[in-house]
Amino acid sequence: MTARATATGLLTAALITLGTLPATADTPPPAQSATDTLPPAPTPEQAASAPRTLDTLSRFFARDGALARTAAAPRVDGASVPVRILSPDFVAGKPGAPVARVEFHASRAVASDGQKASLWTVRRPAGWQVVNIATGDDEIRYAEQGGRLLPGGLVFREPQIDAWYVQKGTKVLPLDEDAIRAVGRNGTTLVAYRDRVARAYADKLPGSSYAHRGAAGGYAAQAPAASRPAPATAAAVGVIAALALVAAAAHRRRTHP
Questions:
Q1: Residues of the chain with pLDDT under 70
Q2: How many angstroms separate the CA atoms of 60 and 7, rounded?
Q3: Looking at the domain assignment, is residue 94 inside a domain?
Q4: DSSP per residue over 70-109, as a string?
Q5: What pLDDT is recorded for position 246?
Q6: How far apart are CA 66 and CA 135, in angstroms?
Q7: Which of 112, 130, 150, 222 is most buried, taking the most CB atoms under 10 A from its CB?
Q8: Considering its fold, how many domains does the chain have in total?
Q9: Contact 210/192 with Cβ under 8 angstroms?
Q10: For residue 60, what pLDDT is reported?
Q11: Signal peptide location in the record (predicted)?
Protein backbone atom coordinates (compact mmCIF):
# COMPACT_ATOMS: atom_id res chain seq x y z
CA MET A 1 0.00 0.00 0.00
CA THR A 2 1.14 3.55 -0.62
CA ALA A 3 2.88 5.52 2.12
CA ARG A 4 1.28 8.87 2.92
CA ALA A 5 3.21 12.05 3.59
CA THR A 6 2.00 13.91 6.64
CA ALA A 7 2.34 17.37 8.13
CA THR A 8 2.35 16.11 11.71
CA GLY A 9 3.05 12.82 13.48
CA LEU A 10 0.12 10.43 13.81
CA LEU A 11 0.66 9.95 17.53
CA THR A 12 0.68 13.71 17.93
CA ALA A 13 -2.74 13.80 16.31
CA ALA A 14 -3.94 11.10 18.71
CA LEU A 15 -2.69 13.04 21.72
CA ILE A 16 -4.32 16.24 20.52
CA THR A 17 -7.59 14.39 19.94
CA LEU A 18 -7.58 13.26 23.55
CA GLY A 19 -6.42 16.56 24.99
CA THR A 20 -3.14 17.29 26.73
CA LEU A 21 -1.73 14.30 28.60
CA PRO A 22 0.79 14.70 31.42
CA ALA A 23 4.43 14.38 30.41
CA THR A 24 6.98 12.39 32.39
CA ALA A 25 10.76 12.54 32.50
CA ASP A 26 11.09 9.61 30.11
CA THR A 27 8.20 10.64 27.84
CA PRO A 28 8.99 14.04 26.31
CA PRO A 29 6.12 15.80 24.51
CA PRO A 30 5.88 15.53 20.72
CA ALA A 31 7.83 18.13 18.76
CA GLN A 32 5.90 21.08 17.41
CA SER A 33 4.72 20.51 13.85
CA ALA A 34 3.53 22.62 10.96
CA THR A 35 -0.11 22.25 12.04
CA ASP A 36 0.34 23.11 15.73
CA THR A 37 -0.14 26.84 15.21
CA LEU A 38 -3.15 26.70 12.88
CA PRO A 39 -6.03 28.67 14.39
CA PRO A 40 -9.26 27.12 15.68
CA ALA A 41 -12.58 27.91 13.99
CA PRO A 42 -16.30 27.35 14.69
CA THR A 43 -16.61 24.42 12.23
CA PRO A 44 -14.27 21.83 10.69
CA GLU A 45 -14.87 23.37 7.26
CA GLN A 46 -13.88 26.85 8.43
CA ALA A 47 -10.75 25.51 10.10
CA ALA A 48 -9.82 23.64 6.92
CA SER A 49 -10.33 26.64 4.64
CA ALA A 50 -8.74 29.30 6.86
CA PRO A 51 -6.06 31.39 5.10
CA ARG A 52 -3.25 30.05 7.31
CA THR A 53 -4.38 26.49 6.65
CA LEU A 54 -4.35 27.12 2.91
CA ASP A 55 -0.86 28.61 3.19
CA THR A 56 0.32 25.47 5.03
CA LEU A 57 -1.35 23.37 2.34
CA SER A 58 0.55 25.26 -0.37
CA ARG A 59 3.82 24.30 1.31
CA PHE A 60 2.60 20.72 1.77
CA PHE A 61 1.64 20.31 -1.89
CA ALA A 62 4.95 21.89 -2.97
CA ARG A 63 7.09 19.45 -0.94
CA ASP A 64 9.84 17.71 -2.89
CA GLY A 65 9.39 20.20 -5.73
CA ALA A 66 6.08 18.69 -6.87
CA LEU A 67 5.01 22.17 -7.98
CA ALA A 68 5.79 25.76 -7.06
CA ARG A 69 4.30 26.85 -3.75
CA THR A 70 2.86 29.95 -5.41
CA ALA A 71 1.14 27.75 -8.01
CA ALA A 72 -0.45 25.25 -5.62
CA ALA A 73 -3.71 27.23 -5.25
CA PRO A 74 -5.22 24.73 -2.77
CA ARG A 75 -8.95 24.60 -2.19
CA VAL A 76 -11.13 22.62 0.21
CA ASP A 77 -13.60 20.43 -1.66
CA GLY A 78 -16.91 19.69 0.05
CA ALA A 79 -17.92 19.17 3.67
CA SER A 80 -15.90 17.37 6.31
CA VAL A 81 -16.72 13.78 7.28
CA PRO A 82 -16.46 12.11 10.69
CA VAL A 83 -13.73 9.48 10.81
CA ARG A 84 -14.56 6.52 13.01
CA ILE A 85 -12.16 3.98 14.48
CA LEU A 86 -13.00 0.50 15.82
CA SER A 87 -14.17 0.96 19.41
CA PRO A 88 -12.44 -0.85 22.30
CA ASP A 89 -15.85 -1.02 24.02
CA PHE A 90 -17.24 -2.96 21.06
CA VAL A 91 -14.23 -5.30 21.07
CA ALA A 92 -14.75 -5.88 24.79
CA GLY A 93 -18.43 -6.72 24.23
CA LYS A 94 -19.83 -3.80 26.24
CA PRO A 95 -23.64 -3.87 25.85
CA GLY A 96 -24.92 -1.26 23.42
CA ALA A 97 -21.45 -0.17 22.30
CA PRO A 98 -21.32 0.96 18.65
CA VAL A 99 -18.81 -0.75 16.40
CA ALA A 100 -16.74 2.43 16.13
CA ARG A 101 -16.47 5.93 17.51
CA VAL A 102 -15.58 9.29 15.96
CA GLU A 103 -11.94 10.28 16.52
CA PHE A 104 -11.65 13.29 14.19
CA HIS A 105 -13.16 14.92 11.10
CA ALA A 106 -11.52 14.97 7.68
CA SER A 107 -11.82 17.42 4.78
CA ARG A 108 -10.55 16.96 1.24
CA ALA A 109 -8.09 19.52 -0.11
CA VAL A 110 -7.13 19.70 -3.80
CA ALA A 111 -4.16 21.45 -5.43
CA SER A 112 -4.04 23.02 -8.87
CA ASP A 113 -2.21 19.98 -10.28
CA GLY A 114 -4.81 17.53 -8.92
CA GLN A 115 -2.93 16.42 -5.79
CA LYS A 116 -5.27 15.61 -2.93
CA ALA A 117 -4.79 15.78 0.83
CA SER A 118 -6.87 15.01 3.89
CA LEU A 119 -7.11 17.68 6.59
CA TRP A 120 -7.78 16.19 10.03
CA THR A 121 -9.63 18.44 12.48
CA VAL A 122 -10.47 17.92 16.14
CA ARG A 123 -12.64 19.90 18.53
CA ARG A 124 -10.60 21.98 20.97
CA PRO A 125 -11.89 24.31 23.72
CA ALA A 126 -11.63 27.30 21.36
CA GLY A 127 -13.14 25.51 18.36
CA TRP A 128 -12.16 23.09 15.60
CA GLN A 129 -8.47 22.92 14.70
CA VAL A 130 -6.48 21.19 11.95
CA VAL A 131 -4.01 18.78 13.59
CA ASN A 132 -2.80 16.76 10.61
CA ILE A 133 -2.46 16.95 6.83
CA ALA A 134 -1.96 13.66 4.98
CA THR A 135 -1.60 12.90 1.29
CA GLY A 136 -4.57 11.38 -0.49
CA ASP A 137 -8.22 11.49 0.48
CA ASP A 138 -8.78 7.99 1.88
CA GLU A 139 -10.97 9.18 4.74
CA ILE A 140 -13.38 11.08 2.50
CA ARG A 141 -13.26 8.57 -0.34
CA TYR A 142 -14.20 5.62 1.84
CA ALA A 143 -16.98 7.65 3.48
CA GLU A 144 -18.41 8.33 0.02
CA GLN A 145 -17.98 4.71 -1.07
CA GLY A 146 -19.69 3.41 2.06
CA GLY A 147 -22.56 5.82 1.59
CA ARG A 148 -23.17 4.44 -1.89
CA LEU A 149 -22.90 0.81 -0.80
CA LEU A 150 -25.08 1.07 2.33
CA PRO A 151 -26.85 4.44 2.39
CA GLY A 152 -27.01 5.71 5.94
CA GLY A 153 -24.41 3.19 7.08
CA LEU A 154 -21.53 3.81 9.47
CA VAL A 155 -18.11 3.85 7.80
CA PHE A 156 -15.21 2.92 10.05
CA ARG A 157 -11.63 1.74 10.10
CA GLU A 158 -9.98 -1.19 11.84
CA PRO A 159 -6.52 0.39 12.17
CA GLN A 160 -4.72 -2.76 13.32
CA ILE A 161 -4.98 -4.13 9.77
CA ASP A 162 -5.70 -0.86 7.92
CA ALA A 163 -9.14 -2.08 6.84
CA TRP A 164 -12.20 0.03 5.98
CA TYR A 165 -15.80 -1.15 6.37
CA VAL A 166 -19.37 0.09 6.31
CA GLN A 167 -21.90 -1.21 8.85
CA LYS A 168 -25.67 -0.88 8.89
CA GLY A 169 -27.95 -2.98 11.07
CA THR A 170 -26.56 -6.50 11.12
CA LYS A 171 -24.40 -6.07 7.98
CA VAL A 172 -20.66 -5.32 7.85
CA LEU A 173 -19.35 -4.90 4.30
CA PRO A 174 -15.71 -4.42 3.19
CA LEU A 175 -14.58 -1.27 1.42
CA ASP A 176 -10.98 -2.19 0.60
CA GLU A 177 -8.75 -5.20 -0.01
CA ASP A 178 -7.62 -5.40 3.61
CA ALA A 179 -11.23 -5.66 4.74
CA ILE A 180 -12.00 -8.24 2.05
CA ARG A 181 -9.17 -10.40 3.35
CA ALA A 182 -10.61 -10.09 6.86
CA VAL A 183 -14.33 -10.72 6.25
CA GLY A 184 -14.67 -11.88 2.64
CA ARG A 185 -15.92 -10.05 -0.42
CA ASN A 186 -19.57 -10.41 0.64
CA GLY A 187 -18.93 -9.16 4.17
CA THR A 188 -20.21 -10.62 7.40
CA THR A 189 -22.71 -10.08 10.18
CA LEU A 190 -22.14 -7.63 13.01
CA VAL A 191 -22.12 -10.51 15.51
CA ALA A 192 -19.55 -12.46 13.50
CA TYR A 193 -17.41 -9.37 13.09
CA ARG A 194 -17.50 -8.75 16.85
CA ASP A 195 -16.44 -12.36 17.44
CA ARG A 196 -13.52 -11.90 15.04
CA VAL A 197 -12.19 -8.69 16.59
CA ALA A 198 -12.73 -10.08 20.10
CA ARG A 199 -10.55 -13.07 19.23
CA ALA A 200 -7.93 -10.79 17.74
CA TYR A 201 -7.84 -7.96 20.26
CA ALA A 202 -9.83 -8.64 23.45
CA ASP A 203 -6.76 -9.81 25.36
CA LYS A 204 -4.84 -6.71 24.26
CA LEU A 205 -7.21 -4.00 25.45
CA PRO A 206 -6.21 -1.29 27.94
CA GLY A 207 -5.71 -2.79 31.39
CA SER A 208 -4.58 -6.16 30.07
CA SER A 209 -1.17 -7.63 30.85
CA TYR A 210 -0.38 -7.11 27.17
CA ALA A 211 -1.07 -3.39 27.55
CA HIS A 212 1.00 -3.19 30.73
CA ARG A 213 3.96 -4.53 28.77
CA GLY A 214 3.72 -1.45 26.55
CA ALA A 215 2.25 -3.22 23.51
CA ALA A 216 -1.38 -2.06 23.75
CA GLY A 217 -3.33 -2.44 20.54
CA GLY A 218 -1.90 -5.69 19.27
CA TYR A 219 1.68 -4.98 18.27
CA ALA A 220 4.86 -5.31 20.29
CA ALA A 221 6.67 -2.61 18.31
CA GLN A 222 7.10 0.58 20.33
CA ALA A 223 6.45 4.06 19.05
CA PRO A 224 9.46 6.42 19.10
CA ALA A 225 10.23 7.62 22.61
CA ALA A 226 9.30 11.20 21.78
CA SER A 227 5.84 10.10 20.65
CA ARG A 228 4.87 7.47 23.22
CA PRO A 229 1.92 8.56 25.37
CA ALA A 230 2.47 9.26 29.03
CA PRO A 231 0.40 7.27 31.56
CA ALA A 232 -3.28 8.10 31.12
CA THR A 233 -6.67 6.57 31.66
CA ALA A 234 -7.31 3.14 30.20
CA ALA A 235 -9.68 4.58 27.61
CA ALA A 236 -7.17 7.21 26.54
CA VAL A 237 -4.39 4.65 26.14
CA GLY A 238 -6.73 2.52 24.03
CA VAL A 239 -7.46 5.33 21.60
CA ILE A 240 -3.81 6.33 21.35
CA ALA A 241 -2.86 2.71 20.70
CA ALA A 242 -5.51 2.38 18.01
CA LEU A 243 -4.38 5.51 16.20
CA ALA A 244 -0.71 4.63 16.64
CA LEU A 245 -1.31 1.40 14.77
CA VAL A 246 -2.28 3.37 11.69
CA ALA A 247 1.31 4.50 11.55
CA ALA A 248 2.87 1.25 12.75
CA ALA A 249 0.89 -1.11 10.56
CA ALA A 250 -0.16 0.90 7.56
CA HIS A 251 1.36 4.18 6.55
CA ARG A 252 4.95 4.60 7.86
CA ARG A 253 4.50 8.29 7.14
CA ARG A 254 7.32 10.83 6.98
CA THR A 255 7.09 14.16 8.77
CA HIS A 256 6.71 17.42 6.85
CA PRO A 257 8.70 20.27 8.50
A1: 1-3, 7-36, 206-257
A2: 7
A3: yes
A4: GG---EEEEEEEEEEEE-HHHHTT-TT--SEEEEEEEEEE
A5: 37
A6: 13
A7: 130
A8: 1
A9: no
A10: 94
A11: 1-25
